[in-house]
Amino acid sequence: MVETLRGIHIFAGLCEGCLENLSSVMQPMSFKAGEEIIKEGETGKSMYMIESGSVEVLKWSGDKQIILAQLDKEEFFGEMALIDIQKRSAGVKAIVDTVLYALTNMDLLHLFERDKKCYCIIILNIARDISRRLRKLDAKYAAISC
């Protein structure tokens, strides 16, 4: 499990002990192809790291569901729920049989209480990823607005 975490960029810069602590609280979850993992609009308390498999991030627009992204091994999703404590902005479903590891808001709180440096690194890495995604979205929006 530590090896999996080491490959996920939001855990970059974490010491071995922090990776081991995280791996001890994160439990594997299995989903079959086509199975819903996150429902758009539900309250979220976890983010997920992909151990194996692939997922689609989906958003409803009227009566049509749009694929926003496909995520694969060593990618993650659901992190916004840990930052802004809002309802899920999109849904996620497994494309193929998929194994995930969940990190809950309570796991992060306990990490904050035990190791503020590791907590800060994770939050900073999540913020950087959200910023990268927003820049990418800005570029797409600018391209279609012209």
Provide a descriptive summary of the structure in words.
The protein is an alpha+beta fold and about 150 residues long. The chain has a single domain, classed as Jelly Rolls (Sandwich). The protein is about 40% helix and about 30% strand. The chain has helices spanning about 1-5, 15-25, 80-85, 105-115, 115-145; strands at about 30, 35-40, 45-50, 55-60, 65-70, 75, 90-95, 100-105. The strands form two sheets. The chain has a four-stranded antiparallel β-sheet. A four-stranded antiparallel β-sheet has the order 2-7-4-5, with no helix packed on it. Helix 4 packs across helix 5. The N and C termini lie far apart (about 45 Å). The mean pLDDT is about 90.
Determine the mean pLDDT.
92
Give the tally of β-strands. Answer: 8
Which overall shape is indicated by the principal axes computed on the Cα atoms? globular
- Rg is 16 Å
Q: What is the assigned CATH homologous superfamily?
A: Jelly Rolls
Number of domains: 1
**SS-based class:** alpha+beta
What is the correct CATH architecture? Sandwich
CATH topology: Jelly Rolls
Determine the fraction of residues in helical runs and give it as a percent range. Answer: 40-55%
Tell me what portion of residues adopts beta-strand conformation.
Answer: 25-35%
What is the number of helices? 5
Q: Which regions contain 5 or more consecutive residues with pLDDT less than 50?
A: none
Helices and strands, in order, run as: HHEEEEEEHEEHH
Largest sheet: 4 strands, antiparallel
Q: Reading side by side through the largest sheet, how are the strands ordered?
A: 1-8-3-6
Distance, first to last CA = 46 Å
